Amino acid sequence: MTTTTWWKHGAIYHIYPRSFADSDGDGVGDLPGITAHLDYLSWLGAEAIWLSPFYRSPQRDFGYDITDHTDVDPLFGTLTDVDRLLAGAHRRGLRVILDFVPNHTSIDHPWFAASRTSTDDPRRDWYIWRDPADGGPPNNWRAVTGGPAWTLDPQTGQYYLHSFLPEQPDLNWRHPEVRQAMHRVMRFWLDRGVDGFRIDMVDYLLKDEHFRDEPLDGHGRYEPALARHQLNQPGTLDLLRELRDITDGYPGRILIGEVEYRLPLPRLAGYYGQDDMLHLPINFWLLFTPWQAHDLQTFVTAYDRALPGHAWPNWVLGSHDISRMATRLGPDQVRVALMLLFTLRGTPVLYYGDELGMTDVPIPPHQARDPWEGRDPARTPMPWTSAPNAGFSPPEARPWLPLGNPSVNVAAQMADPGSLLHLTRALLGLRRGHAALRDGSYQPVPAPDGVLAYRRTLPDEEMLITLNLTGAALDIPIPGEPLLSTHGETVGLLRPHEGRITLLRVAGQVSEAGHVLAGGG
Ligand code: BGC
Ligand code: MG
Predict the structure, then answer these.
(1) Per the domain annotation, does 168 fall within a domain?
(2) pTM of the model
(3) Is 9 exposed, middle or buried (CB count within 10 Å of its CB: 0-12, 13-18, 19+)?
(4) Separation of alpha carbons 11 and 94, rounded Å
(5) Do 382 and 446 share a domain, yes or no?
(6) Is the CB of 201 under 6 A from ligand 1?
(7) Which UniProt keywords are given for this protein, alphabetically ordered (predicted)?
(8) Which of 50, 87, 277, 482 supports an S-S bond with 273, CB 3.0-4.6 Å?
(9) Are 302 and 289 in contact (CB under 8 A)?
């Protein structure tokens, strides 16, 4: 594996810094907390970590509202803590990817403070200002967070655009100085040694130049997801090419991009450009595809075929914006889901705590923190031990969100070889050890109802992955030498909710695998 393609081979572990480990007892996770757990991440077998924002921020959207892109919020630590984290990670062979939030800043950013002072301030056009129309907002655009995307600023009598919260005004990426300023931000972190960025909300960077109203549906409404003018403008791809140019100046660094969740495949593929835009436009489709063998097989096959030869796939089963994997799929399917995530062709992204099967934690209304509501349950503190506060915060501290089930924690699962944590580690280890699981082509294999089966094939190595998505034990012959089961030892029957990886050595057995599975059940 070469140093420039590391991101194709290993798993990316997504850390929500507020919730990983609180070293100073203020109840909020921080950078030294992450550094203290790097050994855990390398033990697990992660290739890279991606950190949600830790920059200076009033935390109205928990760091996605930035007041200084090149400094650390005191809540999380200092620039020296970033350097220590980078050094510690790199020493262990772990790469570090930062969140880059280009679409908007905090309303408290000095750029916006200047911009709002007067219509001829030099920073005025760094943001998007429009006159009222008919005494109201300039057009009918809506914020992703709900409500109008425009807020009137009494000081100058104009409205500013915010695709998210009113406290997150959108930058004007058509302004060359804005682009240059944000390019400088990237260089600042690349020079410091980070290994790449996850770019927030790529589709929103450019808006319709004429600010046309969005078309309404039959009910007089429209969904931001269906919007035509507010996002996805043609020049966006050129902006990405510029970001890629900068990144390519630093060998081995990557750009991951958050794009719309249900992006049609041709558009998702378009974000790779000619290998001159995003290395990995995030594929969120596993979150929305019905958890049925047939639907999953259909999607995985279509995605694999939709990507051009130079494009490398990627897979996600959880994030800080949606309900936890174990809650969405139910506890029974978690093992099979992890086996799927780590055996598909492409880079897997694992959300912190999913290796333990963390579930959504119900948040009583008085403890809710997320301004959009609803995202807190998937952001609760990482449970490390069975101590008070689960070893996330010191015992006397008050974690920023309540903790989940105390029996689910790293220490308990480390001590149990049959745990989900050990399964995750075994899957990552297998991926490291077998080129077919990393680089092999993906071939769907016909299988009985409720079973998802595929081969990962290289000329001299081939794997069969067989996943039982049903609650029934299935009497199907599975060819090959068993390498790993989600359920420990391999027995004859495929147990309910069991997944299995077998090694098919000889090419001749391959087509037989298809027959055998298809004929069984
Ligand atoms: C992030 C969210 C954030 C939003 C606005 C999203 O893509 O994942 O957590 O609230 O962007 O920055
Ligand atoms: Mg702290």
Answers:
(1) no
(2) 0.96
(3) middle
(4) 10
(5) no
(6) yes
(7) Hydrolase
(8) 277
(9) no
Q: How many domains does the chain have?
A: 3
pLDDT, tens digit, 9 for 90 and up, residues 294-324: 999 999 999 999 999 999 999 999 999 999 9
Substitution candidate for ligand 1 out of 59, 62, 106, 200 with most atoms within 8 A of CB: 200
Tokens at residue 145, please?
Answer: 């967070």
Nearest-CA residue for ligand 1 atom 12 is 64
Ligand whose nearest atom lies closest to the CA of 204: 1
Task: Return d(Cα 282, Cα 111) in angstroms, integer.
Answer: 30
Query: Which residue in 73, 81, 200, 498 is the catalytic one?
Result: 200
Report yes or no: 207 and 233 within 8 Å, Cβ to Cβ. yes
Spatial CA neighbour of 353 closest among 395, 313, 320: 320
167 is a domain residue: no
Question: Closest ligand 1 atom to the C-alpha of 319?
Answer: 8
* pLDDT tens digits, 164-187: 999 999 999 999 999 999 999 999
Whether 357 and 415 map to the same domain: the answer is yes
Residue-range definition of the domain harbouring residue 54: 6-104+176-430
Q: Whose CA is nearest to atom 8 of ligand 1?
A: 321
Of 410, 430, 450, which closes a domain? 430
The answer on 46 and 20 residing in a single domain is yes
340 alpha carbon – ligand 1 mean position (Å): 26
